[in-house]
């Protein structure tokens, strides 16, 4: 049996110094076995938690110190603390257009835990930008009909990882769009198998998210063809035949579209006809586009409900 004293000694021996080590620093933060020497004053500028901690009475003399600095043990990962300190000491870090998702995740987790309000808000803002609460903003993020994240560095599976982060951290306003993106970006097998990130690891969804996606998909599939929704114009032609320049041709095309979707069974709750080529006559094209736009507006309004979430106005992102 190793005695506690020997065990402590071993632990001390295995600590390593991070590159974030300021010789004039006044406090040493330790995460796992890595130590960071930083400044109380700089921590306190951004964090009400550390500001309050600094003003506490000095710890007893037998508390561990390194180079005369108090050691504050953090129960966080080294990577999270590194990203936090990068944001704190490198003024350009948060100004980058796209950040790695692990950095965004670290700033949300530690920003909330240690009350770095600005960092928390800036990181949540990136998730919200990628997963907006309005259809107009959602549409603006598509380039050539495709979505690619621009405020978070893209990689295979990033959509799953964003969803997991938002759900774990209660970034609620992000969830409707994040669930929808998870459904349209990857196929049904990937929902359960995950998506290889390309570095030997796999982006997987938790079982509760797999469930939410599966049930949400079913609800949207049923809803998208109902009157007043995205695909109503395919199922039931709401227009007068005498509006149409070529009724037999337009009816045939509509039947082909119906058949196509019966076979492919694709989820397209927010399909945007304004960017699709439809070979209807001019009047029918106009009617179909209007019906589609009204339908997708309604689908967007109800998107949270499709995933059993509260309405848009109630989905808050609090520190
Ligand atoms: Zn027509």
From TrEMBL:
CDD domains: BTB_POZ_ZBTB_KLHL-like. Coiled coil: none annotated. Residues 25-97 form the BTB domain. It holds the Pfam family BTB. It comes from the Eukaryota. This is BTB domain-containing protein. It comes from Mycena metata.
């Amino acid at each position: 049996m190793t005695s506690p004293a020997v065990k402590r000694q071993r632990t001390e021996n295995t600590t390593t110094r991070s590159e974030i080590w300021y010789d004039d620093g006044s406090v040493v933060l330790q995460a796992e076995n890595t130590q960071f020497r930083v400044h109380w004053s700089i921590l306190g500028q951004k964090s009400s938690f550390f500001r309050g901690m600094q003003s506490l009475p000095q710890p007893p003399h037998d508390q561990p110190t390194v180079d005369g600095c108090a050691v504050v043990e953090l129960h966080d990962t080294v990577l999270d603390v590194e990203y936090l300190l990068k944001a704190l000491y490198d003024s350009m870090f948060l100004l980058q257009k796209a950040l790695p998702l692990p950095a965004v995740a670290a700033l949300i987790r530690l920003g909330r835990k240690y009350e770095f309000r600005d960092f928390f808000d800036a990181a949540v803002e990136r998730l919200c930008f990628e997963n907006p609460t309005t259809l107009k903003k959602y549409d603006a993020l598509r380039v050539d009909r495709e979505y690619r994240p621009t405020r978070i560095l893209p990689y295979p599976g990033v959509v799953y990882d964003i969803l997991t982060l938002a759900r774990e951290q209660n970034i609620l306003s992000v969830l409707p769009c994040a669930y929808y993106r998870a459904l349209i970006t990857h196929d049904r097998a990937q929902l359960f198998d995950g998506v290889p990130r390309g570095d030997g690891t796999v982006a997987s969804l938790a079982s509760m998210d797999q469930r939410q996606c599966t049930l949400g998909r079913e609800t949207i599939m049923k809803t998208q063809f109902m009157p007043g929704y995205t695909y109503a114009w395919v199922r039931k032609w709401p227009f007068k035949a005498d509006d149409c320049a070529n009724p037999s041709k337009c009816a045939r095309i509509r039947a082909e579209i119906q058949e196509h979707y019966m076979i492919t069974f694709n989820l397209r709750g927010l399909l945007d006809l304004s960017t699709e080529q439809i070979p209807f006559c001019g009047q029918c094209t106009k009617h179909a586009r209007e019906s589609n736009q009204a339908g997708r507006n309604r689908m967007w309004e109800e998107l949270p409900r499709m995933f059993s979430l509260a309405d848009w106005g109630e989905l808050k992102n609090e520190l």
